[in-house]
Amino acid sequence: MIVWLVGTVRSSCPTPPTPSRRTRTSSVLDRAAASCDCDCEAATMDQSTAKPIRCRDPSFSFSATFTVNKYTLNLTWRDLGQPPWLALVVAPPLAPRDHHAAAVSKAPGQPLEMVEVEVAPPRAHEVRVKIVCTSLCHTDLTFWRMKDFPAMFPSILGHEAVGVVESVGDHVEEVAAGDTVVPVFLPQCGRCADCLSPRSNICSVLAHRPGLMPRDGTTRFSLAATGEPVHGFLSVSSFAEYTVVDVAHVVRLGGGDALPPEMACLLSCGVSTGVGAAWKVAAVEPGSTVAVFGLGTVGLAVAQGSKMRGAKRIIGVDLNPDKFEIGKRLGVTDFINPNDTGEKNVTEVIKEMTGGGADYSFECIGSTSVMAEAFESSRMGWGKTIILGTDAGKAPVSISSSAIKRGRSVTGALLGGIKPKDDIPVLAQKCMDKELELDEFVTHRMGFDDINRAFDLLAQGNCLRCIIWMDGAEQKKTSS
């Protein structure tokens, strides 16, 4: 198939050509189609201005992708080398556009709809990833139920996943097609003051844009049937067969490539948040006491991280007694069910158990009342409270100023204070070395078509992490 192309040309010379100021209306590119300011000998001259107008380098070419109805044309232009500068375009047979399955959230609290979406190619600084498996986090559940901004509809939720790089855009060098990567909601550009500082993991260059790509504020998804834009989620959107993420949001596993995909998947959010908070935010010390409010994935990861750092007493607080057994295996030494404390509240029980309060208190639920309770359970003088849960209501937390003046402190963290590109590979290696146990966190496995059942299980408190395999082929067992 041969067609004539009207457009801007690109040269391989050191200085990129600048487009002609004249509007191109002809199917023939004349001598002013592109000018060249470089000093290469291959440049031709414009007789009227005595200036070089473009290179005659043999590799001089242009390529572009055009969308026509339901098909994509990948076009390659090559200079014929003779005036009047004919533009020869070689187009392969029409190829179907990139339509892939996605579980789209169209209304608050309503079942996700499995539909075909168009996934755009990656732009500059972006990576397109084929999702291998994903998991469901309480943050997904929170935003799925949320009726107001920052929740946006329709959208593709999901932010815990592992995948394989399918293609990359311009200026992407740290990953390539075929690499195994973990997409993460927290970026690490590696250049800003915050990324370079050991005191922060909040990138100051790539601010979060709800539902949109961080650099240009657009989306890479649209409904295949109508073309309606579909919002992303936390810069990941893993409830789709393919997704596009900024390169600052992907971590190449490197030495942890042999880690099973479902284990790597857990490192993209929940487990890294809990272990990181114990190690980096609290800096739990040997012999210390720890109180963990909420024994979900994050809370249990806090317990395991605290145990690895030598905490002598780890108190787990949860309304579900079914979590106590797994908690024991991951390091929890004592359990409190708020329904079984009688006339005493949880704070009083913890102070009695620890002789004044916990050295470190972690809130892993997302409830403002529990945040205040966790703070009151910390020890006067040096007790530190770490807030990890996501509060959908944005209600203020009530904390006594006199307690703060007596030495207590409270802080929070995203992704447990870790720097994704630096620390996730370290955690992956610890998993490979059997220092970090992840098998206990996976309670269910199912195929992509069953994703709504995974939402039901998590909403009912009947699972920790449900691994959702995109093709279903890797399911080895399914717990009900």
TrEMBL record:
Its cofactor is Zn(2+). It holds the Pfam family ADH_zinc_N. It is found in: Cytoplasm. Transmembrane segments: none annotated. It catalyses: a primary alcohol + NAD(+) = an aldehyde + NADH + H(+); a secondary alcohol + NAD(+) = a ketone + NADH + H(+). GO terms for biological process: formaldehyde catabolic process. Residues 298-424 form the Alcohol dehydrogenase-like C-terminal domain. GO terms for molecular function: alcohol dehydrogenase (NAD+) activity; S-(hydroxymethyl)glutathione dehydrogenase [NAD(P)+] activity; zinc ion binding. It comes from the Eukaryota. GO terms for cellular component: cytosol. Coiled coil: none annotated. The keyword Metal-binding applies. Keywords: Metal-binding, NAD, Oxidoreductase, Zinc. Residues 124-253 form the Alcohol dehydrogenase-like N-terminal domain. Homodimer. Belongs to the zinc-containing alcohol dehydrogenase family. Class-III subfamily. PANTHER family: ALCOHOL DEHYDROGENASE, ENOYL REDUCTASE (ER) DOMAIN-CONTAINING PROTEIN. This is Uncharacterized protein.
